[in-house]
Amino acid sequence: MKSATLNQYSLLILAVTGMTRAHGTIDIFTADGVSYAGPESMDVDPESLPSDSPVRQIYTLEPILSTASDLASPNMTCGPAPASSAPATASVTAGSTISFHYRSGNNGVWPHDVGPVITYMYRCTSADACMPSAGEEGWFKIDQQGMDEKGVWAQAAMMRNESINVVVPSSIPDGDYLVRHEVVTLQNAVNRGQAEFYISCTQVRVKGGSGSLDGAEMVAFPGAYAEDDAGLFVPDLYDHDGKVFPYAFPGPAVLGAFTATPAVAVASPSSSSRVPSTVPTAAAATRTAPAPLSTPVVASCTRRKQSTGRASVRQQRLVQGRFNPASLR
Ligand SMILES: *[C@@H]1O[C@H](CO)[C@@H](O)[C@H](O)[C@H]1NC(C)=O
Ligand SMILES: *[C@@H]1O[C@H](CO)[C@@H](O)[C@H](O)[C@H]1NC(C)=O
Ligand SMILES: [Cu+2]
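Above: the input record for the complex with 2-acetamido-2-deoxy-beta-D-glucopyranose. Below: its predicted structure, written as tokens.
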């Protein structure tokens, strides 16, 4: 894996990454006062593996789409071709706040400001040996952040370089979990199959919890979402003049939603049989604001050309044959 061979592959990776760098992934995960660096994705830097990171490396920054086939892919579990384990497991006190900070692939700020941010957990025997199988209904939702009362999406805060803060329920039992953080960008979701998912899993060990998961609405990834979910196919997305509108989050209800922090209740606009979701105000969750932004980097990275897309898939297969994320550990 050294010298000439590595260089060839590095060049190939560089060629592939040109178009992916405008997306992004977690660069800082914070829990119990400790900040952990997240790994770069394999296609940005396969060598970047912080030894103390609880965040599992994903293969590419390219989004998973809300097409029927992508939604059925195992990539929906923990992101695109993720590593099967991370080097560390973060300690988290139940009831405390964890936070997720994102960067783009070129070390700029998160480039999208339309869409919700959703967090799930999955209980494991051992977080670093845990990979839920497709179809296994063990994921429960702990948080969803949509629009604030002005119609500003949670992702707008990410684009202001702020972190997304999530309270870990105090009602869950102690033990190991995966935290599945999911950023859903909707800028193209007026078209069916064009919502974009940025997903990754972080290993945590919860202490100080009380209670049980009885009564939690458990779902499977892949499996929980469908192409026509009202929160993923939103034909009227741009018909609201930038004002707040009833948005139906995809997936199940939030664990303990009825005792959670104040939320703006809205009716689901869809005919879906799902329980109508509530829209927690983005402001309800306190956000930590790192350094203010001088010039926001607003990269458009939404429209993928078919031709380059196909070429890159071929190249990625090649690269992946060489650097299989799972075999790195
Ligand atoms: C999962 O993601 C990887 C990396 O982007 C991709 O090569 C693979 O085709 C995806 N799998 C499916 C079933 O879509
Ligand atoms: C965004 O926040 C990160 C983490 O605090 C910081 O390292 C980076 O310099 C910030 N970027 C900008 C453009 O402010
Ligand atoms: Cu993007």
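Notes for the reader.
The first helix runs from residue 3 to 17.
Residues 24-221 form a domain with the Coagulation Factor XIII; Chain A, domain 1 fold (CATH 2.70.50.70).
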